[in-house]
């Protein structure tokens, strides 16, 4: 399990580990299929949220990356990417 340390107010980016082995998945292949890459994060009660709302001005997805800009203490959670 990898962790990313970011200071308050900095930009954070998370890479989806599903694409770390190109022989399993490639981002372009998933875009050409019916699969979508969704990001989830754990709530304070350790349940998974619905897919992250990427309409929030602090979170956005760029290919297989999730960007948090600017990061705050409330962003300190477990993030999970899934193909669905």
TrEMBL record:
- Reading the lineage from the top rank, the first entry is Eukaryota
**Which residue range or ranges hold the Ig-like domain?**
1-84
Keywords attached to this Swiss-Prot or TrEMBL record, sorted alphabetically, are: Disulfide bond, Glycoprotein, Immunoglobulin domain, Signal
Family annotation (InterPro entries):
Ig-like_dom, Ig-like_dom_sf, Ig-like_fold, IL-1RAcP-like_ig
What protein am I looking at?
Answer: Ig-like domain-containing protein
Q: Which Pfam families match?
A: Ig_6
User: Is the Transmembrane helix keyword given for this protein?
Assistant: no
Keyword Coiled coil present in the record's keywords: the answer is: no
Q: Which sequence ranges form a coiled-coil region, renumbered to this chain?
A: none
Protein source organism: Cirrhinus mrigala (Mrigala)
């Amino acid at each position: 399990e990898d962790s990313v340390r970011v200071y308050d107010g900095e930009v954070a980016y998370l890479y989806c580990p599903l694409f770390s082995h190109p022989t399993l998945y490639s981002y372009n292949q998933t875009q050409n299929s019916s699969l979508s890459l969704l990001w989830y994060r754990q709530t304070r009660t350790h349940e998974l949220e619905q897919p992250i709302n990427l309409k929030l001005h602090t979170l956005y997805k760029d290919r297989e990356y999730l960007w948090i800009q600017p990061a705050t203490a409330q962003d300190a959670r477990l993030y999970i990417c899934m193909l669905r």
